[in-house]
Amino acid sequence: MTQAECVFCKIVAGQIPSAKVYEDDACIAFLDIGPLADAHLLLVPRAHYEWITDMPGEQVGVVAGRIPKLARAVLKVSDAEGFNVLQNNGRSSGQAVPHVHFHIIPRREGDGLGYRWNAG
Ligand code: AMP
Ligand code: ZN
To answer: Which of 9, 39, 71, 105 is the 20 to 30 Å CA partner of 83?
Structure first.
């Protein structure tokens, strides 16, 4: 996929609609179209990078620095008990959209969402 075809670049450019909840010079955040829970957000840098390893660390820091504020808002509106921050890189990890993004996913005990951790 070229950058011109990238769905998140199109959202950043306003070429396709999104339920935007936050924006600044570096990034935007909008509701996931296929949410795992109500208020599941995606935090996306405006600049197109496929993997987080393609991004300068300073830019990762700026975008990731928005997570606490957005997660507090997610917790407030969803009344969740916790949340996951998920950031996938590559098809094997589950990345479907090749533009760096952080998922902020509200969680509740017994919500049935899970991940097969090897630790513990
Ligand atoms: P990932 O599997 O980490 O690449 O996650 C991509 C996420 O983007 C999925 O959770 C999709 O539901 C979401 N998504 C794809 N297209 C859109 C869109 N147009 N607007 C909002 N979310 C989208
Ligand atoms: Zn893009």
So the answer is: 9
Strand partners, 67: none
- Measured at the CA of 97, the angle between CA 93 and CA 52, to 5 degrees, comes to 65
Q: Is 40 a catalytic residue?
A: no
Mean pLDDT of 100-117: 91
d(CA 42, CA 49): 15
Q: How far is the CA of 44 from the centre of ligand 2 (A)?
A: 9
> pLDDT tens digits, residue range 34-62?
999 999 999 999 999 999 999 999 999 99
Mutation test residue for ligand 1: of 16, 22, 32, the one with most atoms within 8 Å of CB? 32
Residues 6+ apart with CB under 8 A from 14: none
- Is residue 101 pLDDT above 90, yes or no? yes
pTM above 0.85, yes or no: yes
